[in-house]
Design goal:
The protein is of the alpha/beta class and about 675 residues long. Helix content is about 35%, strand content about 15%. Strand 10 and strand 11 form a beta hairpin. The longest helix has 18 residues. It comes from Heterocerus fenestratus. GO terms for molecular function: aspartate carbamoyltransferase activity; ATP binding; carbamoyl-phosphate synthase (ammonia) activity; carbamoyl-phosphate synthase (glutamine-hydrolyzing) activity; dihydroorotase activity; metal ion binding.
Length: about 675
Amino acid sequence: AGPEDLENLFDVFLDMVEQKGRPKDLVQQALKYENTRTDMKEKPKKVLIIGSGGLSIGQAGEFDYSGSQAIKALKEECIQTVLINPNIATVQTSTGMADKVYFLPLVPEYVEQVIRAERPSGVLLTFGGQTALNCGVSLQRAGVFDKYNVKILGTPIQAIIDTEDRKIFSERVAAIGEKVAPSQAVYSVAEALEAAEQLGYPVMARAAFALGGLGSGFANNPEELKSLAGQALAHSKQLIIDKSLKGWKEVEYEVVRDAFDNCITVCNMENVDPLGIHTGESIVVAPSQTLSNREYNMLRTTALKVIRHFGVVGECNIQYALNPNSEEFYIIEVNARLSRSSALASKATGYPLAYVAAKLSLGIALPDIRNSVTGTTTACFEPSLDYCVVKIPRWDLSKFSRVSTKIGSSMKSVGEVMAIGRKFEEAFQKALRMVDENVIGFDPNLKEVNDEELEEPTDKRMFVVAAALKNGYTVDQLYDLTKIDRWFLQKMKNIINVHDLLESVDQVSLQRDLLLKAKQIGFSDKQIAVAVKSTEIAIRKKRTDAKITPFVKQIDTVAAEWPATTNYLYLTYNASSHDLAFEKPHIMVIGSGVYRIGSSVEFDWCAVGCLRELRKLNKKTIMVNYNPETVSTDYDMSDRLYFEEISFEVVMDIYNLENPTGVILS
C-alpha cells in the first residue's frame, strides 16, 4: 500500500536479471516520454487570457487570484498578455498587471473581435472558471481559433469537452477500467423519469456545463424529479441523472501534469460533510484525516491515471465518492481547469498552483520550474503538510426572504475561510470564528438540538451538532443522523468536553493547565471568558501572566525536510518555539476577510493596492487575512503573510510579536 509511480522499475529489474539489455538503456526506455504535441514546441509571443467576469455564487475571487498568477508567470517569460474581463473590482484588471485589458462581455462575439484586433498566438481558457471554458468551447466549435491561428495553451479543448460532457466523460473513464457513479445523460423530463426508474430512487439530477451545481438536487420520487428536471433543463441542454450515493465520503485530489508526462498530486482534501452536499458548501479538511494509507494511494494512483488519459496539461481537480465501509469508490467528476478547490489547495499547501499551471501551458517541464515559495526546490515535488487546514463556507441566507436554509448539491455560499492549526480542533474553531465575527467558536449554546436539522443539513448544522454533543448524544448516534465520519465527531466531542470543564470553574479557580489545554484546541479568550463568566480582557491578562502566548509557525510546503525561505505564517499554541525572528520594522495591513454580500473582491483590490504602494516606498509589509480566494494572500504580495483571524485577540498577539511601525485598517 504505497505509491505506484515507479512500479515499472521492478519490470526493468527483472529484465536486467534476464540480461535483456544494458541496465542504463532499459531504465531510459522505461522512463522516456516523447512529447507528441507539436503545438507546444514554440513559445507564443502574445497570449489572450479570458477572465471570469462578474462575481456570482459559485464563481468568486478565486479566478482573480488564478488569473493574476497566470499574468505574472507569462510576464516572467517575456510574453505579452491581453486580458478580457469586464469586472472592474479585480486585481488582474489593475494597472501594471496585464499589458492590455479589455472590459468587454465574455461572449464569443466580443472575444472574437478582440482576437481579430490583437491577433494573439495563444489563448488560456482554464483561468476564468466555467464562464471562460464555456466561451472557449463555443469559439472552438465556431472555428474562430482555427480561423485566426490561435493555439489553445495547456489542456487540449477536447479534454475539456470530454470532462464537461457527462456521457463522454463516463465512456472515457470506463476505457481505463475506472468507474463513475451509475448515471445516465438525458435531454428531456420524460427521459429523466425513465432513467430514474432504471437507476432506482433516490437519484441526483445535475445540469452539465453548469456553474456551482446550478439546477441540481436530489429526488426521492417522480414528482420531485419532474420539478427538478424542469429547472435544470432551463440552465443546460443536457441533464445527468445519478444514482444517489448520499452518505459516502467525498475526497478530492489536486493533480498537476506537464507536457512530458510528469505528474504529481499537490494536495488531497476530505469533506467533513458526506456526499450529497456540493464541495463548495462543505467543510473541507486538508490533508485528509480519515483515509487509510491504502485508500490514499489507491485514489492517488487513479487520479494520475485519469489526468494522463485525458491529456491534461496544467492543473486538474478530481472528486471521488468513497464507500466508508469498504474500498469501493467512484469518480464523481474531473475539472480540467482551476477552481475554488484549486485556490484552497494552493493556499493550504503553499504550492502556487495557478502560477505553475500557466508555466506548464507554455510547454515548460515541471522540473524546470522553480518553486517560487521555497526558493530552493523545483515545482516537481509533492508538498508535505505538518499542520491541518480547515475550510468553512460562508452563507448570507438571512439577507434574503423566503430562501431555504438547507444546503445540498447546488451552491449557495458566497465566500469561504481557511484556518490553519496543529490540531483539527484548533483549526476548526478558528475557522468558525472567521466565518462570522459574532461566533465565539464551536458553541453549544447557539442552536437547539433538532434531529431533522442533523439529518437534513442547514448552514448552521455544526452548532446543532455542538448542542447535541452537550446534551449527551453519542458519537454513534450523531454518525447515524449526519453520516459525518466518527473521527471528526470525536474531535468535536473533545471541544465540548473542555467547554464543560471550563463551565465547571470560575475565573479565580481556572488553572494554568486547563487554560493551556483550552488554547491548544482552539478556544479564544472571549470563548473561555463566556464559559467561566469573566471578560476577554481579564482572560487575556491571566493568560499572558501565565506566559501562555502563541508561537509563529511557517507553511514551507516541505514540512521542514528542505531549507525554505517562506513568509507564509500562522499562530498556534501547539508548539514550543517560533520559526522566525522579529527584527526588522514592518507596517501591518489588515485584510478584508471573508467575502459576503456587501463586501467582496473590491476590498481585496484595496488591500493589494496598499501593499504595492508600501513596497514602492521600500517599506516591509505584514498582511493579516484568512480568505484563500484573494490575491492579497498570495505568497509574493507581502513580506510576511499571517493566515489568521482578524479579531482583537489575534491581531494584538501579532502586534505584540512584530511590534510594527504602523497599522493600516482601511
